[in-house]
Amino acid sequence: QVQLVESGGGLVQAGGSLRLSCAASGRTFSTSTMGWFRQAPGKEREFVARISWGIGSTHYADSVKGRFTISRDNAKNTVYLQMDSLKPEDTAVYYCAGWGRGSYEYWGQGTQVTVSS
Q1: Average pLDDT, whole number, for the chain?
Q2: How many angstroms separate the Cα of 33 from the Cα of each of 17, 30, 41, 90?
């Protein structure tokens, strides 16, 4: 059974930092693109960042570019999201996702990030 488990969320003041982790089990994601998404209350889930397998090229949403960094440790089957200079509008439930058969097939349960002003 494939599982993605996020951790590292919490409450932080604006301008602070958090590091989210997503540990995968049940299959290796070393050859899969991994992504982070978020969903704020009353809003649709939105893309945050992704990292490809192989050379690990990255792509970010404009709203987080320059503040968030996605990385991966294939040996640990884990992907990270370093979030710096956090803003209140970053408040959301953050989900990691693993690419499967033509889409993000695997999803974690989410971790809450709350940024106070």
Answers
A1: 95
A2: 24, 8, 27, 23
